[in-house]
């Protein structure tokens, strides 16, 4: 991860800017494999969920999770076995101002590379292009 740090000699922690730079790097997969199995935590949903190969009956969104989860559990026939926990107070929905704050110190090139990597996910889930970040 040292490669992605603005200050390459800094040995502690990882800043959001470093993480964005890592995710937007077109060679990230090759780097991930150096650590063993591909790190699936940051893989795109297009790659992970194979939407062209699987016919999904439902697609949930984080913004509507409390409404989507019971429907999906019922459709799977397991709603009598498990339930989705309620979202604790203080967890907020999308906040454009907060997003702008996080990305305010990130270079346009790095933001564009990050979006290019996840553009398929934006399209797949019906999210608009975040022009306020990219322009």
UniProtKB/TrEMBL annotation:
Q: Which topology term describes how it sits in the membrane?
A: Single-pass type II membrane protein
Primary localization class, coarse: Golgi
Cellular-component GO terms for this entry: Golgi membrane
Asked if Transmembrane helix is a keyword of the record, the answer is: yes
> Where does the UniProt annotation locate this protein?
Golgi apparatus membrane
Which biological process terms from the Gene Ontology are attached to this UniProt entry?
carbohydrate biosynthetic process; proteoglycan biosynthetic process
**Which family is this sequence assigned to?**
Belongs to the sulfotransferase 2 family.
- Protein name (Swiss-Prot/TrEMBL): Carbohydrate sulfotransferase
Natural source organism? Polypterus senegalus (Senegal bichir)
């Amino acid at each position: 991860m040292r490669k992605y740090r603005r200050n390459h000699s800094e040995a502690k922690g990882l800043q959001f800017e470093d993480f964005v730079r890592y995710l937007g790097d077109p060679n990230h997969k090759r780097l991930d494999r150096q650590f063993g199995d591909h790190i699936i935590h940051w893989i795109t949903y297009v790659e992970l969920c194979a939407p062209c190969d699987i016919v999904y009956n439902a697609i949930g969104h984080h913004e509507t999770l409390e409404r989507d989860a019971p429907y999906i559990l019922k459709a799977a026939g397991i709603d009598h076995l498990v339930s989705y926990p309620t979202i604790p107070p203080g967890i907020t929905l999308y906040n454009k101002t907060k997003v702008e704050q996080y990305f305010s110190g990130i270079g346009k090139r790095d933001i564009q590379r990050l979006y290019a990597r996840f553009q398929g996910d934006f399209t797949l889930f019906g999210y608009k292009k975040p022009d306020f970040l990219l322009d």
